[in-house]
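Hi Y.,

Following your request, here is the sequence exactly as I used it, all 315 residues.
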Amino acid sequence: MWSFFLLIMIYTGIYSLMAMGQNVITGYAGMLSLCQAGFFAVGSYATAILCVKCGWSFWATLPVAALLSAFLGLLIGLPTLRLKGDYLAIATLGFGEIVRNVINNWDKLTNGPMGIQRIPMVKLFGYTFSPYRKGIFLILVWVIVLACYFLVTRLAKSRMGRALEAIREDEIAADSMGINVTLYKVAAFVIGAALAGIAGSLQAVFMLSVSPGTYVFMVSIMVLCMVVLGGMGNFFAVIVGAFIIQFISYFPQLVGLSSVIPPQFKQILFGLILVLMMIYRPQGMLGRSMRSYDKLQGISKPGLLAKLRKKGDAR
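Below is the corresponding structure, written out as tokens. Let me know if you'd prefer a different format.
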């Protein structure tokens, strides 16, 4: 039981990174993207290839995985800027499938359907973070998750975060106010892809192997479920959503019903969650974190009224 709980928490951390990236793209920029699985795969294979074939350490491959995924996010972001809604979702879905098929067929680099095995374990100052010791590996995962969480929450409170919210609410109005819509939408794709690449790198060193069958379209749907369930535009909420989805995924094993409940049941359940949340609580379990512009200006409403009265009396 304890081992299963640690496994759920490790996967919650890995998928939380992807969910935070999805939240930047969908929750803040308002773009429906379905290619997190593709960026996830790129990050995993970047770490696997560099570790196994080039002898790099995990810490050297981590920024490469993030940058390579971010570059692919730039490539998908630029040509899809004019697309919205269903059309954008279909385009990004196609990109994710292209990545998986390239990995599946590029035998010389990725070893094709056989994947890459014997990925070395993570080492830091001579200490090995073995995935067989889940408690130790859990610390590694969540240190990286919390570091990324701090960065994205700071981003959300910055000028870029406000610009992305403005684009989400009304792109034409944002453009007329001088916001560079193209720049910020591409930046959202780049950041979301980089976070998925980091998640992929962690996945590779946790499983110690990679194969194309891991990065299917259902992974992107699962990540979208996490964001919708927790609450779009709320980074803490998507982490909660990631935990709930992972708990649901491993619940049959926890209660010993894995032989009774078919694997396809998870897909039905994820689809049902999306439908029910969209109908009954579209804002998610915790909802979107609302920005207080009074606090942003450092002026309370009574204080603002007092200032206006003083100006009127002076006139």
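Residues 2-28 form the longest helix (27 residues).

Thanks again,
Q.
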